[in-house]
Specification:
By secondary structure, the chain is mainly α. It has helices at about 20-35, 45-60, 65-75, 90-100, 105-145, 150-185, 190-210, 230-235, 240-255, 260-275; strands at about 215, 220, 225, 280. It folds into two domains: about 20-200, no CATH class; about 215-280, no CATH class. α1 (about 20-35) runs antiparallel to α2 (about 45-60) and α2 packs parallel to α4 (about 90-100). The radius of gyration is 24 Å and the shape is globular. Pfam families: EIID-AGA.
């Protein structure tokens, strides 16, 4: 691997001027297929895996053991990152194309793009590749196996080979499109980033309403009249209770010393206690 020491000359944008090759893409794809999820954790989920798959290329772009490399690595490790492992290299390709061209000046833009794109790509990738294809072809392969037809296993293997090929191919496509963003669409880059961020917010709202299931089940007796508090909340705003829960967790995460792991335990303990008392139930 070609690297450079911290005392060698860099371009004004903090890069070496290195351009990615086919060997770089092959290395990225190998690392992505094998170890992208290996560093997953509750704190920042896929951030360390994302950095690991592109670290050799960052060394070539910014030089080895340089302040630019350290800044780029810290930037990629700083934010929470979690998306579909079937479409994550779309972000990777765009990211590397922009960093290769603009260097350290692009890190804020790259961070915004990662944040904005991870939500929409997660919903699309997990729906198609994580649910739809396994359901269709898994059921087909299983039924053929039950019938004693060994062809089912080969269909299942073939589908997974095609999916992995697509995961590798999209890295090249995203990189080429990323170069176009830098060279011909630079004026529209901020608008694309803002649009992706708004879409991500919409996806979070949709996930809250569909995946956070909690209702108030505590009976309230006022002068002999039983009040259905959950019904009142629904009249004010459907899914108000799940939204309030997510808002409370968001507030917790903003407190000093609070981490996502601590917040998870707090929610678990409170849910067990309130559920045991019969005050809340699964929606």
């Amino acid at each position: 691997m070609t690297t450079m020491s911290s005392n060698e000359k860099l371009l004004p944008n903090g890069t070496t001027g290195y351009k990615l090759t086919k060997e770089d893409f092959a290395q990225i794809n190998r690392r992505n297929l094998i170890g992208f999820q290996a560093g997953w954790n509750y704190e920042r989920m896929q951030h360390s895996g994302y950095l690991w798959i592109i670290l050799p290329q960052l060394r070539k772009i910014y030089g080895d053991n340089t302040e630019g490399l350290k800044t780029a690595a810290r930037t990629h490790c700083a934010p929470f990152f979690n998306t579909s492992n079937f479409l994550n290299t779309i972000i990777t390709g765009i990211d590397l194309a922009i960093e290769e061209e603009e260097g350290l000046q692009s890190l804020e833009t790259v961070a915004s793009l990662k944040t904005g794109l991870m939500g929409p790509l997660a919903s699309i990738g997990d729906s198609i590749f994580g649910s739809l294809l396994p359901t269709i072809f898994g059921a087909l392969a299983a039924n053929m196996a039950i019938a004693g037809n060994p062809l089912g296993i080969f269909i299942w293997i073939a589908v997974n080979i095609v999916v992995d090929w697509f995961r590798c191919k999209q890295t090249h496509i995203a990189y080429d499109q990323g170069m176009k963003l830098v060279t011909t669409m630079s004026d529209q880059l901020n608008a694309i980033t803002d649009a992706a961020t708004v879409m991500g917010v919409f996806m979070v709202g949709a996930l809250v309403s569909t995946n956070v299931g909690i209702v108030i089940s505590a009976p309230i007796d006022l002068g002999g009249v039983t009040v259905d508090l959950q019904h009142i909340c629904n009249m004010i705003c459907p899914k108000l209770v799940p939204a309030a829960l997510v808002g409370a967790v968001y507030w917790l995460l903003g407190r000093k010393g609070m981490t996502s792991t601590k917040a998870i335990f707090i929610v678990l303990i409170v849910a067990i206690v309130l559920g045991g008392l019969g005050w809340i139930a699964k929606g």
